[in-house]
Amino acid sequence: MASSGSGYDLSSSTFSPDGRIFQVEYASKAVENAGTALGLKCRNGVVLCVEKPLLNKMLLPNSSRRIHTIDTHSGIAITGFVSDGRQMVNRGREECASYEETYGTKIPTKVLGDRLASYVHYFTLHGSLRPFGTAALIASYDPETKDHALQMIEPSGVSYQYYACAAGKGRQPARTELEKLNINKPDKAENIDVREGVKQLARIIHLLHEEGKDKPFELEMSWLCEESGWEHKGVPRDFIKEAVEWAKKDIAEAQDYESDEDEEMED
Fold it and tell me: What is the pTM of this model?
């Protein structure tokens, strides 16, 4: 009975006999069915990228955004239930404003992640509430320590810092592709920069997208880097277009190379 969730999935405050909270697992499943969100920590900044499905041909491309600025030096990307994500965005803005008003400095990256994670976790503790059906990727910069960070908050309220992370339906194959990038070399000069990071994230999103099966999508991208003055801003549209063209060309060349190899093996 416990494996199916029957009788133990009516409240997020109830554990099953084998130690599972099914309401939290259902919330995580909602995230897995949503568009892919990627985050990448580069040597000179952080890049966020979200695949936003266009559910209707009459939708305006810039409506219902998935990436938001919550402070001058902080941005957040959401995937899952967009309405739940908006509550996390609003809470993030409140935490940033409250910390600066109280202490007179920008909120440190770890404090921001911990506070948002605690807020999400609170909704898994009470039977009258339900967990958030969204995952959030946070890009932030601390002016005091001159350090930038990438964090991800899951529906369970767990928060980790990453070199690169992924959420949504393409999470597993995206992680495989992200692990191939130079992002955690001992010599930081060997790691990729944000401009290369934008291209690689665009390539991964298009690589995972299946034409004819998946819905059309809009690519949302932002960065927090030296080039933006360490302010969270959207990646210029011209550069996104250039990155997408490069990504499609790179994927096509890789597919042609694989086809040639297969033909040689058959011969």
Answer: 0.90
